[in-house]
Amino acid sequence: MPKRGENIRKRKDGRWEARYEKGRQQNGRIQYGYVYAKTYEEVKKKKNLALQQSGFQKGTPRKMSMKALCMEWKKSTRYTVKESSYASYDTLIEKHILPWFGDFLTEEISTDLINQFSMEKMQAGLSPRTVKLLMILLRNILHYGEQRGYLSLCGIQIRYPKIAEQPLHILSEDQIQRLISYLIEEKDRISTGILLSIYTGIRVGELCGLQWKDIDFSMGTMKINRTVSRIKNLDYHKQNNPSQPKTVVIVSTPKSISSIRDIPIPEFLLKMLESYRSEENAYLLSGSSTCIEPRNVQRKFHGILTLCGIPSINIHSLRHAFATRCTEIGFDSKTLSEILGHSSAKITMDIYVHSSMQQKRNCINQLCY
Fold it and tell me: Which domain holds residue 258?
């Protein structure tokens, strides 16, 4: 008689049926095969033979190199994530994971080997955040390999490095006022765009992706529905043409679904924008059908900071400054998270809100009896 868990049963027509795992689909779902015989012993033999021929047997990984596994994982992931995300994965695999793990077989992967990889990357000067991204990516690749029957993760532990939060330089009230005064007097497209970042907290890629059709002057709002970024040219090696660029600028959807949003624009900024107004499909910062990429805006921003006598910071710091200022003047966390395009208020409060010393002083002074 069949034992429990064998997937062998007697059919109503009198034959015996055995079901076996013959492989996995790209999404990890098991593909089953079936064999039939007149007796239980005979169908069990057929099942075991079919498992041997398929090369897939639960708990018995098939031999495969890590290089081959990484290539297969990339193919399975290529069109399931944003192009910018895939380009980032591709770079991390080619630059870090393959040089270390590429020559190993999947069955040779161990906790010690993974820990050694993590330690070497930290010693080489990579930030804990980058090493954590590498470990998460490696975990996803290994998990895919286990689903496909190439290895077993039983007994393998992946530890992530502790990320110590670096102090973030937030512009002081005086510095913000100096910057705003300069940008208003400058009266050009990019300066006005930076003002828009200061007063709405939009990301620099979102700013670069704004077109005039996204500005609703009657409602006083702007629609965030695209972003601009420079990524690795995924077809560079395929084309085998030295004249092809290694990186390309792409215009894509924002970071997440919650990042697609409508944001009110201050009235004085609407009036400034009106003076640059162009055809609907033109980009806000360029005034033409060609967008300006984020790194050029960052360069312009650094130049402005120098002219204003302000220490150099990343333009993304304006987003932090916006969130902090909104909290100080009483914005509720839900409203603020929706303006910033976050999926939850917790993300906003944990990452983007930083109390200034003046805010701390005001809070302490309120304790006076």
Answer: 176-313
